[in-house]
């Protein structure tokens, strides 16, 4: 009898001479285990599939960060409502190198972020209403519930793949160009 069957409480013995019954019983057990595995993973698959589909069809807008070494261009998804801001990049497993997600908080105030259910390590760029970078939280930890504060009042946060800010020389004081920052 396998230790896996014993551990799962599926151990059962049959009297000698009942090999066909034993075989049918073991097949039924295997089918039951397979059904449990498929049922539990089926609950996860729709979320992952839906998130992948949303990422593939998401509308993007151009955004430029003007650094000391020149402009850096990105295509960003913009989250303008509570539902979008709450979901963010949760459950996504990939983001293209020149892409990001811009969170519009619609008012000027200190904000906090976290990485719950976010599998991608990110750089978080906190942005003031005039478009200047307030601070950067670099290489945030995936799946963490640790609070990541803006440190000062901001109106937006730009999430980029981890390491992007350092690689491109993006720093506090750089200017973000996007329609969100015109007229604020």
Please explain how this structure is put together.
This protein has 184 residues and is of the alpha+beta class. The chain has two domains: 3-56, no CATH class; 58-181, Jelly Rolls (Sandwich). Helices cover 30% and strands 31% of the residues. The protein has four helices and nine strands. Strands 6-5-8-3-2-1-9 form a seven-stranded mixed beta sheet. Strands 4-7 form a two-stranded antiparallel sheet. The protein is elongated, with a radius of gyration of 25 Å. Mean pLDDT is 83; it is low at 1-8 and 35-42.
Number of strands: 9
- What is the N-to-C order of secondary-structure elements (H for helix, E for strand)? HHEEHEEEEEEHE
Mean pLDDT across every amino acid position: 83
Which CATH first-tier class of the largest domain would you pick? Answer: Mainly Beta
User: Total domains, how many?
Assistant: 2
Arrangement of strands in the largest sheet: 6-5-8-3-2-1-9
Q: Report the biggest beta sheet as strand number plus sense, adding barrel if it closes.
A: 7 strands, mixed
Strand % is 25-35%
* Name of the CATH superfamily of the largest domain: Protein of unknown function DUF192
Q: Distance N terminus to C terminus?
A: 71 Å
Cα-atom Rg, whole angstroms? 25 Å
Helix run count = 4
Question: Which regions contain 5 or more consecutive residues with pLDDT less than 50?
Answer: 1-8, 35-42
Quaternary assembly: single chain
**Amount of helix:** 25-40%
Shape: elongated
Structural class: alpha+beta
Going by CATH, the architecture of the largest domain would be Sandwich
CATH topology of the largest domain: Jelly Rolls
